[in-house]
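ARCHIVE ENTRY
Sequence with per-residue tokens
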Amino acid sequence: MSIELEPPIAGPDGKPRQRIVRAARGKAKEEGNGLDAAAQGRRFELIPFDKIAFDTTPAYLVKGIVPRVGLCVFWGPPKCGKSFLVFDLLMHVALGWEYRGRSVRPGAVVYCAFEGQAGLRNRVEAFRQRKFADGADTVPFYLIADAMNLVADHPALIASVRAALGDIKPAAIALDTLNRSLAGSESSDEDMTAYVKGCDALRAAFDCVVVLVHHCGHEGTRPRGHSSLMGAVDAQIRQTRCGGQHHRDSRVYERRTAR
């Protein structure tokens, strides 16, 4: 039995690509990541055992539902009230109001509405008229109604939030919906992994929770798309219709830290 090897593929300079790759690896090994020795030594912090302290910061943004930091997904079938639920919940966060008997950590909210922008504006006005008898004071709730490709645009989103809020860090950034901010396929591991990394960049930049509004599959038993999303979430809440037209059921399916 013999195995035939394909001849080396030539690179732009006519040399075999294998030689180019080996040369690049050797150069990277010699030069490292471009940091000098002193900078290399400071890049990662090592915390001594006796300095590792118990974190007393509450782990929730909305107790028992949404973690203070992480990735949270609200999912369900179309027209089941997902956006309404997320908007109402995050308005309580922005105002520092108790949410359905649950404690809330107040903070600024950035809501990215990629679909149904007119409906959200109407929802804001209805909330204003219903909840504020004498008109609303300044509420730290900020709407973004522009189209976005999160993978490519998350650096610009971070910069825009910093420019608008200054030293204030948002407690939550909502992306409504995942599908409208993903340039690719929900079923692709590569595309979904890149999307999750974009969410991680937002979380790391502001030490906040990223809230996704997402659809379920045809069977309605899990969020739509590749399983890498579910492997990354800290909490997921399922929203469904039940009974009459105006009845909704919200259930926390998974919660890692929102105690």
About this structure: Strands lie at 60-62, 66-67, 70-76, 108-113, 141-144, 170-176, 209-215, 235-241, 248-255.
